[in-house]
Specification:
The protein is of the alpha+beta class. It contains eight helices and 14 strands. α3 packs across α4. The radius of gyration is 20 Å and the shape is globular.
């Protein structure tokens, strides 16, 4: 079992098509976006051309920044605010257009008129060179085509058992089944065609830096709106104690490290000595990141924000 939510390798067109929102089980369960193409996303990794950011919002005490990331399939908004200070500083430093990689959590906003607006709340981002961009695109293409194949097989025969998928990750098979069930009429061939533009970039036959689009695409929702998520309950005394233990171990690892970061795997191992399971450690990390207490500027490397 993964220690935390994986960052799905995907593209703007898939995110913009993900209109179905899900919430996991448990008191502090994560929220997911289910796409028509076999991804069940909480965190994502995207790459493309990132524009210069603009500040939005009216409260100067709570700054909030937004930029546009363009890949060959479309445009997605990337945001960062005061609760993501590291990501906000990284976003503010971009003088676009620049090729960049972004890791963050997906967010779906629904307007009263049924319009959907999807964005990615950055956890970390950095500018990259052309070679790295092509490598990231190649990885995301491979995963996208594999997931589309799963969805296609299940669309043809929804009763196929899990052991017929040749070792595909369980999370992929589950997401593919849900995609077929919840998007029965989506034109998946159109998404395959959109991926050809990515393949041209990987092969070097298409420009790496497409011009940023003026505005993100808005999508009309035709499905029914799910009930609003309940407000997050305040942590109990026991949960506060677990948070304290988490931060104590984190601080100790940071103090004893050579680079000022705590290794995530070592942190989880040490927390197990305090009676905290890997699942509990993952929940604590997600909560503390959302509260702006802990950050992960480098994948697998943590510190206080």
């Amino acid at each position: 079992m993964a220690l935390r939510e994986p960052a799905w390798r995907t593209f703007a067109a898939e995110l913009n098509a993900a209109m179905q929102e899900e919430r996991g089980t448990g008191e502090r369960a994560a929220t997911y976006l289910l796409s028509p193409y076999g991804a069940r996303m909480n965190r994502v990794l995207l790459a493309g051309t990132l524009s210069s950011p603009e500040t939005i919002g009216k409260d100067p005490a709570q700054p909030f920044w937004r930029a546009r990331l363009v890949d060959p399939t479309g445009t997605i908004s990337v945001t960062a605010g005061a609760f993501q200070p590291r990501a906000m500083a990284q976003l503010q430093s971009v003088q676009g257009p620049r090729t960049a990689m972004v890791v963050g959590k997906v967010h779906l906003y629904r307007g009263n008129d049924g319009t959907a607006y999807i964005s990615v709340r950055a956890e970390s981002l950095r500018t990259i060179d052309e070679l790295t961009l092509r490598a990231l695109y190649a990885d995301a293409l491979s995963q996208s085509f594999d997931r589309l194949e799963l969805v296609g097989r299940l669309a043809t025969d929804p009763n196929l058992p899990d052991d017929r998928f040749d070792g595909a990750p369980t999370a992929w098979v589950r997401a593919a089944r849900d995609s077929v069930r919840r998007y029965p009429t989506v034109d998946r061939a159109g998404y395959r065609a959109a991926l050809k533009g990515v393949l041209e970039v990987v092969e070097g036959t298409h420009a790496v830096l497409p011009p940023p689009a003026p505005t993100p695409t808005h999508v009309r929702i035709t499905s029914s709106e799910p009930p609003a998520a309940a407000p997050r309950a305040a942590p109990s005394a026991e949960e506060r104690a677990h948070e304290s233990a988490f931060l104590d171990v984190l601080d100790e690892l940071v103090d004893n490290s050579s680079d000022g970061y705590a290794d995530l795997k070592e942190l989880v191992q040490r927390l197990a000595e305090h009676g905290l399971s890997a699942e509990m450690a993952e929940e604590l990390l997600d909560r503390l990141q959302e509260d702006g207490v802990v950050e992960e500027p480098i994948v697998g490397r943590l510190r206080r924000a």
